[in-house]
Amino acid sequence: MKDKSIRWGLPILLILIALPAVVQDTFFLRVITEAIMWIGLALAFDVLAGYTGYLNFGHGAFFGLGAYTTAILMMQAHWPFALALPMGGVLAGVGALVAGLPTLRLKGAYFAIATWALSRAVQQLALIMDITGGPDGMRLPSFLNPQFFYYLMLAIVAVTFALLWFLLECSPFGLKLKAIREDDQGAMALGLNPTKLKMQAFILSAVPTGILGGVYAYWITFIDPASTLGDLVSDQALVMVVFGGMGTLVGPVIGALLIFAFKTLFWAYLSDFQLLYLIILGAVIALSVVFIPNGLWGTLRGLRSHKKSEEKKDESLAAKLPQNEGE
Amino acid sequence: MAEPILQVNSVTKCFGGLTAVNNVSFEVQQGEIIGLLGPNGAGKTTLFNVISGFYAPTSGTIIFNGKDISGKPPYTLADRGIGRTFQVVKPFAGLTVLENIIIASFLRYPKRKEAERHAWKILENTGLADRADVSAASLTLAGRKRLEIGKALALEPTFLLLDEVVAGLNPTEADKTVELILELKKQGMTILIVEHIMRVIMNISDRLVVLNFGEKIAEGTAAEVARNPLVIEAYLGEAAA
Known about the structure:
The structure holds 2 protein chains of 2 kinds.
Chain A: H1 2-22, H2 26-52, H3 59-75, H4 81-103, H5 108-128, E1 138-139, H6 146-170, H7 172-182, H8 184-189, H9 194-220, E2 222-223, H10 225-229, H11 232-244, H12 250-269, H13 274-291, H14 295-326
Helix pairs in contact in A: 1-6, 2-6, 2-9, 2-11, 2-12, 3-4, 3-5, 3-9, 3-11, 4-9, 6-7, 6-9, 7-9, 11-12, 11-13, 11-14, 12-14
Chain B: E1 6-15, E2 18-28, E3 33-37, H1 44-51, E4 59-64, E5 67-68, H2 74-80, E6 82-84, H3 97-105, H4 112-126, H5 141-154, E7 159-163, H6 171-186, E8 190-194, H7 198-204, E9 207-212, E10 215-220, H8 222-227, H9 229-236
Parallel strand pairs in B: 3-8, 3-9, 6-7, 7-8
Antiparallel strand pairs in B: 1-2, 1-4, 4-5, 9-10
Helix pairs in contact in B: 3-4, 3-5, 4-5
């Protein structure tokens, strides 16, 4: 398993590091940078949705929290970006702790509704407060260096992926979360503390999201409550994860790439029909829940392991046959 | 007599106006198998849930190894050495049988590799080794009940609560499970078991505690309890007593 991940991960990482040298077109580099950001957001969303079984419709609030924290520290407190960015992650983590205390007691649709409502509340706060600039949003000093943002985004998402890989696929933490997803009462009887584990997962999901929000703010140089605290971040991350495959790390990457590619093409050629995009997004999630409940990656993996077990069966049959003839 | 491993002291558990368990007391000695009997709705599972920490008792105390554990959460009790199974089995359906046991093994073996090694040992002992890589959802009922026992055993408990681990199995499967329970007893495990199948519970229990409508109506050896008019009344009606 580990060898395989290095065999796949290392070449991909090397290609991504070399990419800006080949891609001179800034528009294209920008698109890839945003694609990488969405991979990160989908991965972080999946920690809670796929591994722990909690659909967080307030995921976007962590993104906005990170974006606003970074922006406010840079503009009002005149912190350098390098210090303001980590604070975005810290504040998103603190936000998760505060939001998680009441909401993580809820289950299923109730958790989804509660987190959605909380994120609406945060958006309203950003709309009325002075420090956030209200509905006008905030402008950040522009730092026009696409390569810098590309590499920063890549580094953050790569570290997030590696960290999640280690925590969720290699260490006991991932299995413990899955136990809670499957049956929290049963998990409790086995010595697991669901409240604590859920909280850890919530924070683990929030911190990278907040950091990505901070990078986004400095990169785009303009944030407002609609773009960073709206529904779209949560909704899109959800579709990416469900479509790609929940409860895996490869699934969100595939889902994010496909959905984001579709979005970019749609925006480029059919920007007059923005409403249609949301309708299609809704249809994609409905159809994938019905027809590929395990997502693209989960379905692919299921087919492959099915094939393998068929082969195994054939082998064991073949091994038995000559013996039967002998008897 | 030595200090009992478990003392249930006048435990009462109410749900709103319904008293599910009413002033029940009994003791369990080290190495004993105690059978908990009673008609449907007598409060057996509720009492199990109180002892294993899923419900806090409304009044009364539960002393385990000399310490008051009433109201302590299940994961603390698992750490203290109480393992339990669920009547309505709770497999982690989306995970493999091996992963199910590994999760339980983390309590004593926090490292993944050691937990896996320990899990294989449990799989061998419970006869699930050949099913290790299948998903828990695809197990038969008998397999799921084995898995329940396996998960509880992976906690390396000193005290085991078994809630209807035989009911619903065919006679061959039932015999296998009884064998497993007796083997555990031989190793010195203390067990509290709820079971409806009289053939099983009468044979393996050292002593029985009988509940009816939440109250303890009898306690003693199988022979004593079977003669008790209150027990006969509870099971067969007043006329038979």
